[in-house]
Design brief:
The complex is a heterotetramer of chains A (608), B (474), C (164) and D (106).
Chain A lengths: L7 H15 L6 H20 L4 E6 L6 E6 L1 H24 L6 H20 L3 H20 L6 H29 L14 H17 L7 H8 L2 H27 L7 H22 L4 H22 L2 H32 L10 H4 L1 H15 L5 H16 L1 H27 L13 H19 L2 H12 L15 H25 L7 H4 L2 H11 L5 H45 L4 H21 L1
Antiparallel strand pairs in A: 1-2
Chain B lengths: L3 H13 L9 H19 L2 H5 L3 H6 L8 H24 L3 H23 L3 H19 L5 H32 L4 H10 L4 H18 L7 H8 L2 H28 L3 H23 L4 H21 L3 H32 L10 H4 L1 H15 L5 H15 L3 H25 L16 H19 L1 H12 L4
Helix pairs in contact in B: 1-2, 1-6, 2-5, 2-6, 5-6, 5-12, 5-15, 5-20, 6-7, 6-12, 7-8, 7-12, 8-9, 8-10, 8-11, 9-12, 10-12, 11-12, 11-14, 12-14, 12-15, 13-14, 13-19, 14-15, 14-18, 14-19, 15-17, 15-18, 15-20, 17-19, 17-20, 18-19, 18-20
Chain C lengths: L2 H19 L3 H21 L3 H25 L5 H15 L1 H16 L16 H8 L1 H21 L8
The chains are: A mainly alpha (608), B mainly alpha (474), C mainly alpha (164), D mainly alpha (106).
């Protein structure tokens, strides 16, 4: 196969997107075009799977050449993205019906897919940065068209991702200058001196794109404002894919990342903190979609923790968790979408008793919720075990944090399931099951969760482990987790979560109050209240800082204006007036000046 | 035969004023012919005139006149400015007899300046300076109105003092060198350098010439003389007389005769920078059109002197080029002021306004002259100021270079004030029926503008065949 | 340096100060004439006869005549102008110290020793020969000056005033 | 430069400067325009004296005489024109007071 084919994954979605922008909004034309593009992308991704290919074209001089490289890891990301693209595309046809600015939505959707393919395939760092920035713009676009006052959260997302991308740019510039070349395969820098700074900057960029702690605050807001398929497609799946793909490329290829270095502990700390804080916030949410978005943030913590350990088990666990998370999170969001479409609201207090009216959505929810909580037969359980194995190897404190995280995850999902589906129905109107085109993606994703769980050698052996290649040191993590101790601990934690849920329900009488006893616990109540008021949100702090800066700048500007308009003019006028006064018209005075001048010159000459 | 440039005007003067029937009416045309011939001769550097030898004249009049490049430039500008002054005179002086007198005076001052420019003897220089001075006294006081008489008297007093200083210095030099010709003095200077008498002589000479050139501590007479003089007189005065008597002789004396010593450079730099700033700042607040132009010419002469003060070859080129440029656009500004004065009848800037609507040519030409004086790129003024500032920078006076640039900003300032008050804005009331000056008045302005623009645009190729050779007078 | 030279010098200085200080115009003109005569005598002393004759005839004569004519034109001061002029005379003496200081400075500096190699003494010492052969160009200059003077007189002393 | 010639020059030099200063004082201080002219004439006298002394002290008396003759002629013309201007001022203002000619200000 000629190398040009590498261009197709990028070109097809983007061209389709441009066409979608201008196509007439006749019934179904846009949807058809999108599905066509997405299926073509899926076919090409399948064809390209596990191939070795390089495509090179001079682009902008100065060493930025348009070079794409297909190898195992990028083909895996390509395939996953194509899969999600196809499923969410199918889902959004039904879901987005009747909503406004549809051609904008579909074109941004396709551009996102194209740029993710581009970022995955990019061989040149600057080219990767180009696609990375493209994603930022489209992210803003997609949130913006959510509904009419989605503007603030779109700006918030844009600013936060923008800041992170600037760090990324800085990192790439540093790496480029240190390594002398911008080609990812040629860069292999030891971690000392400036390289550390470069690593940190790039790590910030990658983790921010994946949505980890310091750069996470836009996701919950976007969850409420943005169109739901966007949430299912970008924050849940693609961003994680691209972010973690680049994070693993940094740690595995670009830098000699060793478990001993303090950077790996730094990564693990970020991961652990993200897990705990995000899941604690998730627990107290009363909105279906916000709860899921906080979980998306906390699950990223597991991936970063896994990769941060630097141990083969941890890395394999992290990457495996990445794909698993993408699947069940996307499925959960889709169930959220169907609930929103059918029941009209996503507020847990108003929902209830949907199990009987929406059986298929309910079953998909059960499968996805179980896999995210790490219940044994499903895929979440196996990837979490690998992450626990890696974390325990590096330090029990990280393992304890991860375990507490999964306890709270399980508790919150029990609360969600009980409140949304099992409580007695509070709403009056009759709720029907979601249309078929929304159900199919959910069912496929649920089936995949089960498949990757039960028969996990399939994903591990031919998808994830080839990525590490020689770094595996001969382990094969496929099959049932090796250390029994971890399995027992997980089961104990799940049991505790169930008991905690039962206690909460008995105490408050209804499903949605299951976490109240934690929410209003003496110590936590103040912190939770402050968190609700966004006190800890870095974005708000930044905005206040900017306010002071602009006031100071305006003051300086006024001072400079004063100097030019008032000061310079006044002095010139007064000096001019003084000089004109000096000429008082009498020739005697002029003569005296001349004599004075004469004596000065004579004295000057004879002295020097 | 350089002497022709002096003899022909002299003989012509006698012939034209003979008591024939209408001999006096031809004076004006004779003067015009003279100035044009002079400009033509210099431009074409006609072989016959320069190298030709007429035995009869040669045998009787053995003058040792020398004409190098600096003289050529001066002769050219004298010719051009004299022609413009005559054109303005034709239209400003209505009476037949007065016009004849004025043309005679212009012929004399033309001959006088030619003498100053071509002489090689210090005392002859003094005599021709006196000729030019006396003629300009008479021209200023030509119409004998109150202001003109006052301006003329002030010029007489200060010029007389300057002359006495020159004479004293000539006496000292005569004592040391025995002769008064430049070479004799040069030999004496080289023979016993660091002699106190010679430094005293140089000091007195510089002071005298600075008074005549109108630089700041000595400039008292200049604004009054220029602003009160009748229009044609102020054109030729501001255009070329002050620069020939003051600056040219300064260059010739300091450069060829006494040679550059450390102290003369410092004096020239110091006087130059003060002149630039005082001239510019004084011009900023002026109410009278011509008085502002007078102060602006003081400031521009300061540029010439500061460039001379660097003492380097580039500085000299810059000085000479700016001298030529300045005489062109200053003469043109005075021609414009003459046109405005004739049409609008007033010189007070506050009463004027929006004249360029009614007098488009005058407005446009004065705008170009203003921009050129301020040194705006495409025009000639920019190139000469550029050379000056580069010369200052190279000769190790960055502070002066910076100050010179700042001053040209002030220059642009007061010229834009002039343009806005006189030509732009809405038409001042009472001038509705204002109309453009006759063709005679616009012609000199257009010629001078064309010269400024041509020199500005053609500067690159102009520079190597005229400016560089000009520096070989060292 | 005979006694006569000193006497002449001191008389000249005395009379020039007399001319500078005296209030009445006539005495001032008289002082100038005496200075001019003394100058002529000095020139004879320095055996420069031609120059002396010129000086005497032109300066002492012509210029004094001009001044007397000018004085006759001006009217005598009225009474109150008289003491007004006296009052101003007091003011004028204020300028004297500045002038003395300036004189002191210049004289002090010019007293420096005079050492330079003297040029060869002049071969030709006949004025006429010098004037007509070496300085011919000056004569041309003189012609022009006289022409200028003529036109000056024509313009300035013209009876009917052009724009009266 | 002979010794006595040098001393002769310096002696006359001081007196020349004195006469020069009297002239300047008269021009600067007087109220009457004609006195200004007299002052200018004094200045010329000083210059003439200096040239004669310079010529005599170095033996170039012939050239000095030529210079003096030329100088005197030129000075006559200058003073004549100056007198003309002064008389015109007198005719225009009616008085010879210096105040008349100090109204060109600024």
């Amino acid at each position: 196969m000629t190398d040009q084919i590498l261009l197709y994954p990028v070109i097809i979605p983007v061209v389709a997107a441009i066409i979608a922008l201008f196509v007439t909004n006749a019934k179904g034309v846009k949807e058809g075009l999108t599905m066509l593009a997405v299926t073509a992308n899926l076919i090409i991704a399948v064809m390209l799977f596990n191939k070795e290919m390089v495509f090179n074209m001079p682009w902008a001089g100065f060493g930025f050449d348009f070079s794409l490289r297909l190898y195992h890891f990028s083909s895996f990301i390509l395939l996953a993205a194509a899969g999600f693209g196809f499923l969410v595309g199918l889902y959004s046809i039904a879901f987005m019906e009747g909503k406004n600015s549809l051609n904008q939505y579909y074109s941004y959707f396709l551009i996102t897919l194209g740029f993710v393919n581009g970022a995955a395939l990019a061989e040149n760092l600057v080219l990767m940065l180009f696609f990375w920035e493209g994603l930022l713009l489209v992210l803003f676009g997609l949130i913006y068209i959510g509904h009419k006052d989605a503007y603030p959260s779109a700006i918030k997302a844009f600013v936060i991702s923008g800041v992170a991308d600037v760090c990324m740019m800085l990192g790439i510039a540093l790496t480029g200058s240190l390594a002398g070349s911008l080609n990812m395969t040629k860069i292999h820098l030891p971690l000392e001196g400036l390289a550390i700074a470069a690593f940190i900057f790039m790590m910030i960029g990658a983790t921010a794109k994946a949505g980890s702690m310091p750069f996470h605050s836009w996701i919950p807001d976007a969850a409420v404002d943005a169109p739901l398929p966007f949430m299912a497609f970008v924050p849940a799946a693609l961003e994680k894919l691209v972010g973690i793909y680049f994070l693993s490329r940094i740690t595995l290829d670009l830098f000699k990342f060793t478990p001993e270095s303090w950077l790996s502990t730094l990564l693990m700390v970020i991961g652990a903190v993200t897990i705990l804080l995000a899941v604690m916030m998730a627990l107290i949410q009363t909105d279906y979609k916000r709860l899921l978005s906080y979980h998306a943030i906390s699950q990223v913590g597991y991936m970063i923790l896994g990769i941060g350990t630097g141990v083969p088990a941890g890395i394999v666990g992290g990457i495996f968790h990445m794909i698993n998370h993408a699947m069940y999170k996307c499925c959960l969001f889709l169930t959220g979408g169907s609930v929103e479409k059918q029941a009209g609201t996503t507020d847990l207090k108003k929902l209830g008793g949907l199990a009987k009216t929406m059986p298929i959505t309910f079953t998909c929810f059960i499968v996805a919720a179980a896999s995210i909580s790490g219940v044994p037969p499903f895929n979440g359980f196996f990837s979490k075990e690998l992450v626990y194995d890696g974390a325990l190897e590096r330090g029990w404190i990280f393992y304890a944090a991860a375990l507490l995280g999964s306890f709270l995850t399980a508790a919150s999902f029990l609360k969600l399931g009980h409140a949304a589906y099992l409580d007695k129905p509070s709403g009056k109107q009759e709720v029907k099951e979601a249309p078929l085109s929304m159900l199919v993606p959910m069912i496929v994703l649920a089936f995949l969760c089960v498949l990757f769980g039960v028969y996990n050698p399939l994903p591990l052996n031919n998808l994830i482990q080839p990525i590490l290649g020689e770094r595996l040191e001969g382990h094969n993590f496929a099959g049932f987790p090796h250390s029994a101790f971890l399995v027992v601990m997980t089961l104990v934690v799940l049991g505790l979560a169930y008991l905690n849920h039962m206690y909460g329900v008995k105490k408050t009488g209804k499903g949605s109050g299951a976490s109240d006893h934690i929410h209003y616990a003496p110590g936590l109540k103040g912190i939770y209240a402050m968190a609700e008021r966004r006190v800890f949100d870095p974005y708000e702090i930044g905005m206040k800082l900017m306010l002071w800066l602009s006031v100071a700048a305006r003051f300086v500007d006024k001072a400079v204006d004063w100097i030019y308009e008032v000061f310079a003019v006044k002095t010139a006028e007064s000096i001019s007036y003084w000089i004109r006064e000096l000429h008082n018209g009498s020739y005697a005075v002029y003569l005296m000046w001349s004599i004075l001048g004469l004596t000065l010159i004579v004295v000057f000459f004879l002295m020097w | 035969m350089t002497t022709l440039l002096i003899l022909v005007p002299l003989i012509g003067l006698i012939l034209v004023n003979l008591p024939f029937k209408n001999a006096r009416r031809t004076t004006f045309w004779y003067a015009v012919m003279l100035s044009l011939m002079q400009a033509y001769i210099v431009l074409t550097s006609d072989k016959i005139i320069w190298e030709g030898h007429f035995d009869p004249i040669e045998e009787y009049f053995k003058f040792n006149l020398k004409a190098d490049n600096l003289t050529l430039v001066m002769l050219l500008s004298i010719g051009i400015v004299a022609f413009c002054a005559l054109m303005v005179a034709k239209h400003m002086i209505k009476d037949e007899g007065d016009l004849a007198n004025f043309s005679n005076l212009i012929i004399i001052i033309l001959a006088g300046m030619n003498g100053v420019v071509m002489t090689t003897d210090v005392f002859t220089l003094y005599i021709f300076l006196e000729i030019t001075a006396v003629t300009s006294f008479i021209m200023i006081a030509f119409f004998r109105d109150k202001d003109a008489l006052e301006g003329s008297f002030k010029y007489i007093v200060l010029s007389a003092v300057a002359t006495v200083l020159l004479l004293a210095s000539i006496a000292l030099v005569f004592m040391v060198s025995g002769g008064t010709s430049f070479e004799a003095i040069n030999r004496a200077v080289h023979a016993n350098n660091e002699n106190l008498i010679l430094t005293a002589a140089l000091a007195l000479f510089t002071a005298g010439l600075l008074i005549k050139g109108g630089l700041v501590p000595f400039h008292g007479w200049l604004p009054d003389a220029y602003s009160s003089a009748p229009a044609p007189a102020s054109v030729i005065l501001a255009g070329i007389v002050t620069k020939t008597t003051g600056i040219y002789s300064l260059i010739r004396i300091v450069n060829n005769v006494f040679g550059f010593s450390g102290s003369i450079k410092n004096i020239l730099l110091f006087v130059g920078i003060i002149t630039i700033f005082v001239g510019a700042l004084a011009a900023l607040g002026q109410k009278d059109f011509k008085r502002m132009l007078a102060y602006s010419s003081i400031s521009q002469v300061g540029y010439i002197v500061i460039s001379l003060g660097t003492g380097t070859e580039l500085g000299l080129i810059g000085a000479m080029f700016h001298l030529f440029n300045h005489s062109i656009f200053k003469a043109q500004l005075f021609v414009n002021s003459a046109a405005v004065e004739k049409q609008a009848g007033t010189r007070d800037l506050d009463k004027m306004g929006g004249f360029s609507k009614k007098m488009p040519f005058t407005g446009l030409t004065s705008l170009i002259a203003c921009l050129s004086t301020a040194g705006i790129p495409p025009l000639a003024g920019f190139w000469s100021k550029l050379i000056i500032i580069v010369a200052l920078w190279n000769s190790g006076h960055p502070v002066f270079a910076g100050a010179a640039v700042l001053a040209s900003v002030i220059t642009l300032g007061y010229f834009l004030v002039l343009q806005r008050k006189a030509f732009f804005g809405k038409l001042a009331e009472g001038y509705e029926q204002l109309c453009e000056a006759e063709f005679g008045l616009i012609l000199p302005a257009i010629i001078l503008t064309l010269i400024t623009v041509a020199v500005g645009l053609l500067f690159p190729l102009l520079s190597n065949n005229t400016l560089i050779p000009m520096s070989h007078i060292f | 340096m005979t006694m006569l030279d000193y006497v002449l010098l001191f008389m000249m200085a005395g009379f020039s100060v007399f001319a500078a200080v005296r209030r009445s115009l006539l005495q001032c003109a008289f002082g100038l004439a005496v200075v001019s005569i003394l100058l002529t005598i000095m020139m004879f002393r320095f055996n420069a006869p031609l120059a002396a004759v010129f000086e005497l005839s032109v300066c002492a004569g012509l210029i004094t005549v001009i001044f007397v004519y000018a004085i006759s034109l001006s009217r005598v001061h009225t009474q109150e102008e008289e003491q007004q002029a006296d009052h101003e005379r007091k003011l004028r003496y204020g300028v004297l110290p500045y002038i003395i200081v300036a004189a002191g400075l210049v004289i002090y500096f010019l007293q420096a020793p005079l050492i330079f190699t003297a040029p060869p003494s002049q071969a030709v010492n006949d004025v006429r020969e010098v004037l007509w052969n070496q300085r011919l160009f000056d004569i041309i200059g003189l012609l022009l000056v006289i022409m200028a003077g003529v036109f000056g007189v024509v313009v300035l002393f013209k009876e009917k005033d052009a724009n009266e | 430069m002979s010794k006595d010639a040098a001393s002769l020059f310096w002696l006359y030099n001081t007196f020349v400067i004195l006469v020069f200063l009297c002239g300047i004082y008269l021009v600067a201080v007087t109220k009457n325009l004609i006195k200004v002219l007299i002052g200018l004439e004094l200045l010329t006298k000083a210059a003439t004296l200096l040239i004669i002394v310079a010529g005599y002290s170095t033996g170039h008396i012939a050239t000095a005489q030529a210079l003096i003759i030329n100088l005197i002629v030129v000075e006559v013309v200058v003073i004549a024109v100056a007198a003309g201007v002064v008389l015109s001022i007198r005719k225009k203002y009616g008085s010879l007071n210096v105040k008349n000619i100090s109204n060109l200000k600024g």
